[in-house]
Design brief:
65% of the residues lie in helices and 0% in strands. By secondary structure, the protein is mainly α. Helix 1 runs parallel beside helix 3, helix 1 runs antiparallel to helix 4 and helix 3 runs antiparallel to helix 4. It is a multi-pass membrane protein.
Length: 124
């Protein structure tokens, strides 16, 4: 009596590609996660999903770049609150985060490509 072959090791092999609808879902969730959790949601999404499809990779990379750019704006704004102009920078960065993250989430849900304006490209 032969024994069945052992199952493949956890994480063995290439990750399975996502379906187009799953890619749209994850891309949308990454945009909303960036709005709620800053750069952490796009970073986690990029690290986990970057090899699962071109659409979700592009959206996670652009969201991560945008959130890192906003992080820089928040740090500069926080420092410049000592001279009061920082409050304006912080308010504008917060408004840009809300507006552009919602636009990106809607575009991702529709399956359209979107690039955030005013973004420094850290991740490609």
């Amino acid at each position: 009596m032969a024994t069945p072959p052992p199952p493949p090791a956890y994480g063995a092999g290439a990750p399975q590609p996502l379906t187009p609808s799953d890619e749209k879902l994850w891309a949308t969730l990454i945009q909303v996660g960036g709005l709620l959790f800053g750069f952490l949601a796009p970073l986690i999404g990029y690290l986990i999903l970057k090899d699962r499809g071109p659409f979700v990779r592009a959206y996670s990379a652009t969201a991560l770049n945008f959130q890192l750019t906003l992080l820089i704006a928040y740090i500069v704004g926080g420092i410049l609150t000592l001279v009061l102009v920082g409050f304006i920078i912080l308010a504008l960065a917060g408004i840009l985060n809300i507006v552009f993250s919602i636009i990106a989430a809607v575009k991702a849900n529709q399956g359209e490509w979107y690039t955030y304006p005013l973004t420094i490209p850290f991740v490609k």
